[in-house]
Every structure is written in structure tokens, then in C-alpha cells.
Amino acid sequence: MKEKNYSIQFLRFLLAIIICYGHFLWVTPYQNVEMYANLKAHCANSFFAVEYFFIISGYFLFFSSRTIKDFVKQKIIRIWPLLAFSILVGICIGMKAKSCDLATLFFLQGTGISQKGGLNGPAWFVCVLFWVSLIYHIVLKNMTNKIKRNIFFLSVFLVSFFLLIKNLFIFPRAIMFGFLSIMMVRGFACIALGVLCAILNKEILIPKLSKKLSFDSCNNFFKILNSTIEILLFSVVMYYCFSIKTFGYPYDQILVIFVFCALVLSFVNKSGVLSARILNNKFVNFLGEISFPIYLMQYIVFFEISKSYSRHLDGGGHSIAYWMIYFIVVGILAYFIVEKPKELLIKKMEKGNINLKDYVIKFIKK
């Protein structure tokens, strides 16, 4: 049995927190508070965490062996329950449902068919992830020629990445050329880049450098070298998320995305002490499991932030640390209310101990 690598889960958790932090300073009423103005100016790049999420998803998409039908089922089971729950909670706490919320439930938000955010604006990410991943999965299942496959993903990446960088600072929900959603462009570019990273790792790096890539199999020199590189890569990515541009547009955006790709490759190979020792434990795995609920439920916290702000118009009230903890707590609650029971149900179904139809009937009767 292949040994599990939990360290990549830490990246997922950290990226979810970074996105929540950026949203707190840029889209909640606290963006108007003078004491947060400097923080806001220095965290504009925190939203690149979405690109990083896409890259990680693309990397693991490459290794999916599911049939197209099973892939769709797995994606819907993975995403839809929490997505529906997030909208239901919003309605229950007094938020007004809109017609575009129905589009979100069909994974259409941010695709160009529906650009409005509705109750859960951040849900555009999972909608775009669903459709782009499905398209790329179909390509991976049907394009067996490696050269053609590599050319396809490289071409799609180059075109979409050029469009992404060219239009980076236009309205994030904009439509380009009258039909193309910039959100879909972000997905096409960075998921393709993640797939290319997987191809590079599996077909070039691992066959040729496997003994030098792994912390557990390399000698002391490479242990130190790999650990130093890994820590530097991690530091650059984190620094960029919380700092203003340093090289000038668009070079810094391009550079940091490729730095993150190198960090992902280091983490998946457990090349340095960070990924192989410090972050490779089961608690970190739990942090990764709650990252999706934290991300998807963040807009519930936005609503609470708005109510709190209206009671403290002077900019006082709860601190940013309080709200960051709030994001995590809400995510943990959603995990144990929706995600954990769903996982247990799926395991029982896989073992043949339960019939989904009977389970639903019993649940409704209760």
C-alpha cells in the first residue's frame, strides 16, 4: 500500500484561509476601515490562492482512473451536498435567495451562462472546477497518444494563460469577447498547468531523479538542498500573498505561479523536511479536509461581518483575528454536519451495508 502524503493538505487549508483573509479586507464593509487600509493594500495578491487551488486540482486530476460516468458521479457527490447546504444556511439566516442561486446549484455560476454571485459568490470556483475538470478528464481518457496529449494541454495552457494575464485586472466576473468568462479562463489555464506539472513529474522527474527527489531516499546533501529549496519556495509564495507587487505586472504574477508549481512538485514528492516530516501527519490531513467547507461557507461569515459592522460604524468591534477564527469554526461545523456524515454514508454504501433509496426514505420519515 502506497504511503499517504498529508503535506499537500496543509497547502489546501492555508490557501482557504488566505482567500478568507483577502475577502475580509476587500469585499466586506471592513474594507472602509482606515486601520485596515495598509493590510488591504498589501494583500491584493492573496486572490492568487484560487489559481493555486486550480493547479493542485489539475495535478491530481491527471491521476484519476475513473470512467467518465464515475468521475461525474464522484464530483457531484463531492461538491453538491455542501454547495446546497451553504445556500440553505444562507436562506435560513435571513439572506434573500435569487434566481441565480438555482444556476449555482447546477454548477453554472462563473461559466458565462450565469455570472452573478447570488447568495454564495465564492461558489463560482467549484462550478468552474466541475466543468473544466470534466472537459480535461474526457481529454485524458480519450487522448492516449502522449505527444498529442502533451501538445493539447500545453497549447490550451499557453492561450488561456496569456488571456488570463492580459485581462487580470478587469472586473473578475467579466465576459471577454462577448462570450468567454474570465473565471473559466482562470480554470482552463491553471488546471491545465496542474496537469502539465503531473506529466512533468510522472514522466520526466520521477523516472530520472527519483532517488534525489525523495527526502527519505536521498543522501544528506540532497536532504539539506531540497529542504532549503522547499522552504524558499514556500516563503516566496507566502510573501507574495501578503505583499505588493515587486517586479511589476505581469512578471511577478507569472513568476509566482511557476514558483507555486515548483512548491507543489516538492510537496507531492516529499522532497524537503517541510513536506516529508513537519507537515506529513494526520492532523494536517484534517486541516485539508476542512479547507473545502471553510472556503464554501465563508460567505456566511461575510453576512455576520456585515451585521457586526453595522453595529460598530466607527470601525471598531471584533478584530480580524476573531473573524479568521470564525471562518475556521464555521468550516469545521459544516464539515461535521455535512461532509463527515456523507463520507460515512458513502463507505457504508460501498460495503453494501446500506441502500441509498432506503436511507433517504428513513431520513424523510424521521
Task: Tell me the layout of helices and strands.
Blueprint: H1 7-26, H2 37-42, H3 49-61, H4 68-92, H5 100-105, H6 124-142, H7 146-166, E1 175-176, E2 180-181, H8 182-213, H9 220-241, H10 251-268, H11 273-278, H12 282-289, H13 291-296, H14 298-311, H15 320-351, H16 356-365
Antiparallel strand pairs: 1-2
Helix pairs in contact: 1-3, 1-12, 1-15, 3-6, 3-8, 3-10, 4-6, 6-8, 7-8, 9-10, 14-15
What does this structure look like?
With 366 residues, the protein is an all-alpha fold. The protein contains 16 helices and 2 strands. It has helices at 7-26, 37-42, 49-61, 68-92, 100-105, 124-142, 146-166, 182-213, 220-241, 251-268, 273-278, 282-289, 291-296, 298-311, 320-351, 356-365; strands at residues 175-176, 180-181. It has a two-stranded antiparallel ribbon with strand order 1-2. A hairpin with a 3-residue loop joins β1 and β2. α3 (49-61) packs parallel to α6 (124-142) and α4 (68-92) packs antiparallel against α6. It is globular. The model has no long low-confidence stretch (mean pLDDT 88).
Question: What does this entry show, briefly?
Answer:
It contains 16 helices and 2 strands. With 366 residues, it is an all-alpha fold.
Keywords for this structure?
mainly alpha; two-stranded antiparallel sheet; 16 helices; 366 residues
Number of strands: 2
Strand order of the largest sheet: 1-2
Helix-strand string: HHHHHHHEEHHHHHHHHH
Shape, please?
globular
Tell me the span between the first and last alpha carbons: 41 Å
